[in-house]
Amino acid sequence: MTKYFSLVLFLLLVVGGGLLIGATNVPGAWHAALNKPSFNPPNWIFAPVWTVLYVFIAIAGWRVWQRQDLREAMWAWWSQLGLNFLWSPVFFSLHSPGIAMVVILAMLAAIVVFMRLVWNNDRVSGLLFAPYLAWVSFATLLTMAVFVLN
């Protein structure tokens, strides 16, 4: 029972935190006025994609947290989460695509480090991060395009 209670806590932290960050750092008029690349997806797609990704991130973190042999991976997990939660305020609230680019590159690195650290001992956690890596790679390209176009 305690095992699954900790899973609920991870889900609340990651999904709840992500939704809270998203709700308090909305794109708004500033974002609407930006020049965006032709491959910019519609705004409605971001919430469902991030919700699914946050569930995967939480489950991967929970799985690794339970293992004594993957403590280094938890540092990478916490790093990517902190950077993830930082990106929206930097981009949408501070209106700073340049700093957001630095944040997202660091996040991308933390995701790769996490995946590398867990791959041999907990491949499921590594695979749970694969869609996250793909989406953040795409988001990095979007961030770079917005930075360059504006």
Globally, the shape reads: globular
CATH topology value? Ferritin
Mean pLDDT: 95
So, CATH architecture? Up-down Bundle
Instruction: Compute the number of structural domains.
Output: 1
SS summary, helix count: 7
How far the N terminus sits from the C terminus, by CA atoms, comes to 51 Å
CATH class: Mainly Alpha
User: Regarding quaternary structure, how should these chains be classified?
Assistant: single chain
Q: How large is the radius of gyration?
A: 16 Å
The major sheet is characterized as:
none
**Structural class determined from secondary elements:** mainly alpha
Q: What is the helix content?
A: over 70%
Strand coverage percent: under 5%
Order of helices and strands: HHHHHHH
Secondary structure tally: strands: 0
Low-pLDDT residue intervals, each spanning 5 or more residues: none
Summarize the structure.
The chain is mainly alpha-helical and 150 residues long.
What does this structure look like?
With 150 residues, the chain is mainly alpha-helical. The chain has a single domain, classed as Up-down Bundle (Ferritin). Helices cover 80% and strands 0% of the residues. Helix 1 runs parallel beside helix 4 and helix 3 packs antiparallel against helix 4. The protein is globular and about 50 Å long. It starts with a helix and ends with a helix. The mean pLDDT is 95. It holds the Pfam family TspO_MBR. The chain crosses the membrane at residues 44-62, 74-92, 98-119, 126-149. Its main location: membrane. This is TspO and MBR related proteins.
